[in-house]
Design a protein that fits this description.
Elements (H helix, E strand, L loop, with lengths): L4 H9 L1 H28 L8 E10 L2 E10 L6 E7 L5 H15 L3 H14 L8 E6 L5 E5 L2 E6 L4 H10 L6 H7 L5
Antiparallel strand pairs: 1-2, 2-3, 3-4, 4-5, 5-6
Helix pairs in contact: 3-4, 3-5
Length: 186
């Protein structure tokens, strides 16, 4: 390959210009990779790193209200419940139904009141196709997501398991759905 003497002379006069180009190229590549990683982390699914254990549909009378999916780690140290709604439901109705289920499961009024208050603030109205997900971490922090976007965290370490017990307790009002979520009817 032939080099022009003019280009070689220019490179010799500015020996740092080639390093500057390499440095700028490396910085541009690093910036692009960082932006891609940040974009992927911001759009990561709240259940993406968990394994689906089971799923089922909640039916009330003649209506199918939602599809629920349970996700866990192999040791069950983290769990997530993702609900996709088939109907529009007001957030107050969702919170009231949660309160009713906790009362049926025998939780104390004081605990229920402390758990319900943040849900009234956090949960939006759901539309057909909306998803509401809770992820209970290994340290028992409960993170809620609406349509895959974080909407709030509850730090009470008893909350997550109490919330999941609505579906997973042996005393649930929906034993068939429990069986499906736990993958017990395969």
């Amino acid at each position: 390959m032939a080099y022009s003497s003019q280009g070689r002379a220019k490179a010799q006069r500015h020996p740092h210009s080639q390093w500057k180009r390499y440095l700028l190229s490396a910085l541009a590549t690093l910036f692009a990779c960082s932006a891609l990683i940040f974009h992927n982390a911001a759009n990561a699914s709240p259940v993406g790193d968990l394994n689906k254990q089971g799923e089922g549909e909640m039916t009330y009378l003649f209506w199918t209200l939602y599809n629920a999916e349970l996700y866990t780690t192999p040791t069950r140290s983290e769990q997530a419940l993702k609900i996709e709604y088939y109907r529009d439901i007001d957030s107050k109705d969702l919170v009231d139904a949660t309160q009713d289920q906790w009362e049926k499961l025998g939780y104390s009024d004081s605990k229920i009141k402390s758990w319900i208050a943040p849900l009234y603030e956090m949960w939006p109205n759901v539309k057909q196709g909306s998803t509401l997900t809770i992820r209970v971490s290994e340290n028992q922090q409960s993170q809620f997501y609406f349509d895959e976007q974080p909407i709030g965290t509850i730090t009470d370490t008893q909350f997550g398991q109490a919330f999941l017990s609505i579906w997973l307790s042996e005393n649930t009002s929906e034993p068939k759905l429990r069986q499906q979520l736990l993958g017990l009817n395969k």
